[in-house]
Specification:
This is DUF3572 domain-containing protein. InterPro entries: DUF3572. There is one protein chain. The protein has one domain. The chain has 94 residues and is mainly alpha-helical. 69% of the residues lie in helices and 0% in strands. It has helices spanning 3-18, 21-31, 35-41, 45-56, 59-69, 75-82. The radius of gyration is 12 Å and the shape is globular.
């Protein structure tokens, strides 16, 4: 997967989070990110990777996001692998 495609998928994931107040609140609570930081870093590859990490931590979230975005369920993981900060041992590489 290209980095551009990975960033696009991660931005789609951010939009998915932002559309659900409870899910966005959970993301911010679990990551320690506040709304200002999220807005300021939304386009940064490291933040995009963190957004995907959050979704990938819960299979149900991945499946819901993929379905809503019209993606195959494995695409968010492939996107994560293509972004900075992914370690080969993280959640099993595809």
């Amino acid at each position: 997967m290209t980095r551009d495609r990975a960033e696009t998928i991660a931005l789609m994931a951010l939009a998915h989070l932002a559309a659900d107040e409870n899910l966005l609140g959970r993301f911010m609570a679990e990551t320690g990110t506040d709304a200002t930081e999220l807005k300021g870093m939304a386009g940064q590859p490291e933040m995009l990777g963190g957004i995907l990490d959050f979704l990938l931590g819960d299979e149900a979230l991945v499946i819901d996001f993929a379905a809503a975005a019209g993606l195959r369920p494995e695409e968010p993981m492939r996107a994560r692998i293509a972004l900075p900060g992914f370690a080969a041992g993280d959640r099993g590489a595809l």
